[in-house]
Structure formats: C-alpha cells, structure tokens
Design brief:
The chain is of the alpha/beta class. It has helices spanning about 40-55, 70-80, 95-100, 120-130, 145-155, 160-175, 190-200, 220-235, 250-265, 265-270, 290-300, 355-375, and strands at about 10, 15-20, 25-30, 60-65, 85-90, 105-110, 135-140, 180-185, 210, 240, 275-280, 310-315, 330-335, 335-340, 345-350. The two termini are about 40 Å apart.
C-alpha cells in the first residue's frame, strides 16, 4: 500500500523537497542551546563544520529549539551562514515564530497544544505565506489541547485518536486560511500510538508526514523503538521525512535513520541517497584487532561518503576476508599484523600502528576509482 502526498519545498540556500516520490528526508535536532559566541571565531568554525558534516552524512534538515528572543536571533543569524535548511521549533510564544520569519529560516514548527489562540496562529500563517515558508504542525502525546487531554485521561478517547483529532483541527484551520505548505507530525513515546495515529491520518489527507517516536530513550532502546515504528509505517508507504529521536548525539540519530532507510529501500519504493554500508564484527576472544576502537574512529567519516561502498571492519581470521569477501574494502587483524583486503583479496599487510594511515590511502584510492568510473 502506498500513499501519495503533496510536495512541499523547504527553502534555504540549497532547498529540499518533501513528499510525492522524493526520497524520505532525514532530520535531526541540535542538542544544545546556541549563543552568538557559537557563531564567531573558532567556535563558529566548529559549529559550521559540524553542520556540514551532518549534511554529508545524510541529514537534510536541522531543527533548533527557539525558547526565547535571543535564541530566535541566534538561529536566524545561523540560517544565513549555512546551506543546511534550518527549522525553528516554537512552543508557547507565537512572537518567536514571527521573529524567526525575519531571517532565512527554512521551516517553522509549532505545537497546537501550546502555541495559543487562533488569532496568534493566523499571524504566523500570514507571515509564513508571504515568504513561502512551510509550517510543520507538531502534535505530541504530552502536549495535546486540554479537551483532548481530558478525554484521554477519562478513557473516552485513545491517545492515537486524540493525536489525529489535534492534527485535523489544525489542518482545517490552515485550509480555511488557504495555507497548503504544511506538514504534520504526530509523535508519542509509545510505538503503538505512533503507528496507529499515522496510519489513521495517512488515509485522510495528502499532507506530508514527519514520523518518529518521541522521547524514545538512550541509544539502544531508542533505535529499537524507532525502528519498529518506522519499519511498520515506511513499509506501508507512510512517511516523507523521519527523525530517530535518541538521548545521544545528532550524528547517531542521522546514522540510525540512514540505516533504517537503507534496509527498507525496497519496501518503501522511494529512491535513497547513495552511501557506505558498514559491516563490522562484534569482537570476541579471538580478536587480534580492536574493531570497536577502529569503528569509532572511522564511523562518522565513512558515513559522509556519498558512494555505494561496502566497508568491513573485522577482528580475526574467522571473520576476516572470507565472511566479508563481498566488501569493497575491508580491514582485519591476525597476530601482530593487520590486513587490508578488497573483494576478499588481501592487498596490504602492515603493522597495527600503520593501520589507519594505510586504510585511509586505500579508501581514497577506492573513492577516486569510483569517481573515474562515473566519467
């Protein structure tokens, strides 16, 4: 089963398209509060470098919390400094959304449960419409409108139905205002509620859906819960953009999202970006090569490579070239030696101290070869 949604253009220096047959877009959210000091000097270089790395890893949209006026100024200023489309996440104070719209912010996210009266939302819609900025209606299980919250608490309505009703109320208002550049997210900490709510709304609207499980927890529980929800929804053709919400780094959120999409490619029927498939053994008492440390050192860089490559990091002769024979480039250890191999054939034998340098040389050579093949 598939669902056709309208196409929304998310602006910025390098606009992205969401919906229709466009690839499912990966998002993450900046984890810390930014100040103007984070935008200048070496700190500013580090901020921009990290955003650039997130983009290279596959992140297409980056969201920032905007809790006050200073945050609005900082995020707005940052939006003019980077090609990454930035999203301003607004709660409680609609004037913050209005201020953000004075800057090249690519999208605004508001929560109908706490943003305020219709008149306030109408001002945001008017300004967003005049500037061609889309809005995401972000409905959370913990911040439903008061009447729906009471209905859930009293057992008259289940949470998934309440999420849908909250979203539909806002969509009706947006439609009355003739504002069509809108997306919806309905997130709960419950996998079941998240799946059910999105299934219900997908049948009733062509609005693009941003999906994921909110407050999903630390790395392992968070990845599991999001994978369960996203596998179910994306497998049915529901969902145009995702975030794997984790109590962990932005980079791990992006990597998790990328891996989920990669492994669901056939099921969702949408194109995905190219990229590295990384396989590595879990390590055991046979290991003579520290796969954990090597993987940690190289993981982020490998996920920034926009080429279809399979990279293997193996720990011993058992899991070395034989089990990873299909890898475009692999590394493994035996005794005091480290071996680099391509398609199961050992191409270099070096000492452990030279492993990173040799791996980098082989990786760069492989990447150059792939680029030459394209020409």
């Amino acid at each position: 089963m598939g669902y056709t949604t309208r196409v929304i253009k998310i602006g910025g220096v390098e606009p992205v398209m969401i919906g229709g047959t466009f690839p499912v877009l990966i998002q993450t959210m900046w984890k810390d509060r930014l100040s103007f000091s984070d935008l200048t000097g070496s700190a500013g270089d580090e901020t921009l470098s990290r955003i650039k790395a997130l983009s290279a890893m596959g992140c297409g949209l980056l969201r920032f919390a905007v809790p006050d006026k200073e945050s609005a100024e900082v995020v707005g200023t940052l939006a003019s400094m980077t090609a990454m489309p930035l999203v301003a996440d607004i709660h409680f104070d609609y004037t913050l959304a209005l201020r953000c719209l004075d800057f090249p912010i690519a999208k605004i996210r508001i929560n109908p449960g706490n943003i305020g009266s219709r008149k306030k939302i109408e001002q945001v819609l008017a300004k967003a419409a005049s500037q061609g900025v889309p809005i995401r209606i972000g409905v959370n299980g913990g911040s439903l409108p008061q009447d729906l919250r009471r209905a859930v608490a009293e057992g008259h309505l289940d949470r998934s139905a309440a999420l849908v009703q909250a979203a539909e109320r806002e969509l009706e208002f947006f439609q009355d205002f003739d504002f069509s550049q809108v997306l919806v997210s309905m997130k709960a900490s419950s996998v079941a509620d998240t799946i059910k709510a999105n299934r219900l709304l997908a049948k009733r609207t062509d609005v693009p859906l941003h999906i994921g499980v909110t407050e999903a927890g630390p790395l392992i529980p968070g990845v599991i819960r999001n994978t369960l929800a996203l596998h179910a929804l994306l497998g049915e053709g529901i969902g145009d953009t995702i975030r794997v919400s984790l109590s962990d780094t932005m980079e791990k959120e992006v990597i998790a999202g990328k891996e989920i999409l990669r492994n669901l490619e056939e099921g969702i029927g949408k194109k995905r970006r190219g990229g590295v498939t990384m396989i590595s053994c879990p390590r055991c008492g046979r290991n003579s090569f520290d796969t954990h440390a090597f993987t940690k050192r190289w993981q982020h860089r490998l996920y920034t490579i926009d080429q279809d490559l399979t990279i293997a990091v193996m720990g011993c002769a058992v899991n070395g070239p034989e089990e990873a024979r299909h890898a475009d480039l692999g590394i493994t250890g035996l005794g005091n030696k480290v071996f680099l191999f391509r398609q199961g054939k050992v191409v270099r034998t070096i000492g452990a101290e030279a492993a990173d340098a040799a791996f980098e040389e082989e990786l760069e050579g492989l990447s150059r070869g792939r680029e030459s093949e394209k020409k």
